[in-house]
Amino acid sequence: MSAFFTLWRKELTTYFLSPIAYIVMIFFLVVMGVIFSLLVSVLADGSAGVTVMNLLFGSPFFWMTMLVLVPVLTMRLFAEEKKSGTIETLMTAPVSDTAVVLAKFAGALSFYIFMWLPTAFYIFVLWFFSADMLPPDPGPMLGGYLGALLIGMFYLSIGVCSSALTSNQIVSAIITFAVMIVLFLAGLLDYIAHGEWVRQVSAYLSSYSHMLEFSRGMMDSRPIVFYLSGTALLLFATVKIVEARNWK
Length: 248
Prior knowledge:
Structural class: mainly alpha
Distance between the termini: 22 Å
Radius of gyration: 19 Å
């Protein structure tokens, strides 16, 4: 356990020492700030049938940001160490492959959560400066951020697995983006498919639909199980990929 925390601190420190990580964080916060400004404009117009969390998490800008953000955060995790040769030193240390994979995933997830923290103030700022607005409903708020966490975990695990497959960071990012876009587009088949079974599978895979449900405060156990089990499966696959490395 101590080895895991040591590796986790190393990974998290690497993020905060990397200029790319700060560029990604600034990009994320700028996009979320733009979404928030659009949200304020819509609410100021008095549009009916819209909620704060639906506008925040249902925006196409939010999804475009996720599709760019995750590959950049995860592409270096294994690929960079393979290319520089430090992976051999890491793997010959007295630490298990599982601890290495989990520590790298935990480092990426911790930085992902850190980026989200400032956005939690948006709702309270909106509430504070609007005399006519009701207090924020905790259900949609908690649901929206739970959805962002679960989907982020799943997408980050895709990135970790992709990075373990190659020594090229760009290739890792492309693989991650390709898998994410396929999953995202597969979820949109629910709106255009005619076959019932296709629509059911699409609805089960649709991160967009899941996020809208979470942001309404609807806590369905099926997407929760899907994202947790999918994350666990991908991390297990990553461990097996690392165990099968040629230098072992």
